[in-house]
Design goal:
Chain A: It comes from Penicillium angulare. The complex is a heterodimer of chains A (201) and B (127). Chain A has seven helices and five strands. Chain A is of the alpha+beta class. Chain A has a three-stranded antiparallel beta sheet with strand order 3-4-5, covered by helices on one side. A two-stranded antiparallel ribbon of chain A has the order 1-2. Chain A is elongated and about 60 Å long. Chain B has a single domain, classed as Signal recognition particle alu RNA binding heterodimer, srp9/1 (2-Layer Sandwich). Classes of the chains: A alpha+beta (201), B alpha+beta (127).
Chain lengths: 201, 127
């Protein structure tokens, strides 16, 4: 399965997937329900129908997995890393900074999987600074957020345009754009986000 | 499957799990979230959050012929909690915070250039 290029794209696509297959539609298997003559049949039903006894794990919901893992190192790789660390320490011993102990860099893989269709969206990163934004994004997805509210809160291209608009007209638009940001001081919030975007590129 | 934990217990267990993995610089933490089907008991949609250390309980097929398991697989960590829709925001704020602070095995942002550019500000924080 292909990896998506940016975290923003990943979150957006996940939101679109959620939209395309709303979570309220679930596959239920009837198990000897008294109101129905046939003991077993598979139907589509909505969340609101409470009289149906559900006894199946065939829920057609999307699952999001976040995998935080360290790479497994072969002994040779371990040796190499230790050597390079020793070199670094030697280099830094005359400078004031204390050398940081190097460890293999962990990776974070996010995967959205929609079982019935087999759709799988992935995103991989190793940047710590992205974790907070990603997890907040996942929270919004869990709450059933739509693409609009996700797209505006991130530092994507569309977001930047919105921010620029917000600065011109001030106030209302900027506040609307910063769905996740604090409502007060929309102007400064927009500027801060813009800065972050520049630094990354 | 062990019963679901309260949010507090889940967070503390998750913190230890992440710290342990980062400390060893080895291993995996798997976090899963999926919507729970609404039942008669809970009408509002809730989300099931799970965390494991991806330590499989299955014996290693390679060592099966020798009749022994190479690693102790009995210590699998498996925690889960259910978050109701009204608690989602609060939960995720803390969840994100914990992930941000404990997943230190990831690459940190290179602040060196910034600190040099700022100069004075960086020095005052150091002193």
């Amino acid at each position: 399965m292909p990896y998506l290029p940016t975290s923003q794209a990943y979150l957006e696509q996940s939101a679109l997937l959620l939209e395309a297959y709303p979570e309220t539609v679930r596959l239920f298997t009837l198990q000897s329900d008294s109101t129905r003559p046939t003991p077993r049949q598979t139907i589509f039903t909505y969340r609101t129908s409470h009289n149906i006894k559900t006894k199946s794990n065939l829920t057609t919901t999307q699952r999001i997995t976040t995998k935080y893992s360290f790479p497994t190192e072969r002994p040779a790789q371990q040796l190499k890393r230790k050597k390079s660390q020793a070199k670094k320490e030697e280099k830094q011993s005359n400078s004031t900074e204390q050398p940081e102990p190097t460890a293999p860099v962990a990776s974070l893989v996010l995967k959205t999987y929609h079982a019935p269709t087999g759709i799988c969206l992935k995103y991989q990163t190793n940047k710590l600074q992205e974790v907070g934004r990603l997890m907040t994004g996942l929270g919004k997805l869990a709450g059933g957020a739509d693409v609009a509210s996700l797209g505006l809160s991130g530092p994507g291209v569309a977001g930047d345009v919105e921010m620029a608009d917000g600065e011109d007209t001030a106030g209302v638009v900027a506040q609307g754009a910063g769905a996740a940001a604090t409502p007060a001081g929309g102007k400064t919030g927009g500027k801060g986000k813009k800065k972050g975007g520049k630094g990354k590129r | 499957m062990a019963p679901h934990l309260s949010h507090e217990d889940f967070f503390s267990a998750l913190t230890t799990l992440l710290e342990k993995t980062t400390g060893k610089a080895q291993g995996t933490v798997l976090l899963t979230q999926k919507p729970l089907p609404a039942s008669e008991a809970n009408a509002s949609p809730s989300v099931l959050i799970r965390a494991t250390d991806a330590n499989s309980n299955a014996p290693n097929p390679k060592s099966a012929d020798k009749g022994k398991i190479t690693k102790d697989k009995s210590t699998k960590v498996k925690i889960g909690t259910v978050v109701k829709s009204e608690e989602l925001e609060e939960f995720y704020t803390r969840y994100a915070e914990i992930c941000k602070t404990r997943m230190t095995g990831l690459k940190k942002r290179d602040r060196k250039r910034k600190a040099k550019a700022k100069g004075g500000a960086a020095k005052t924080t150091k002193a």
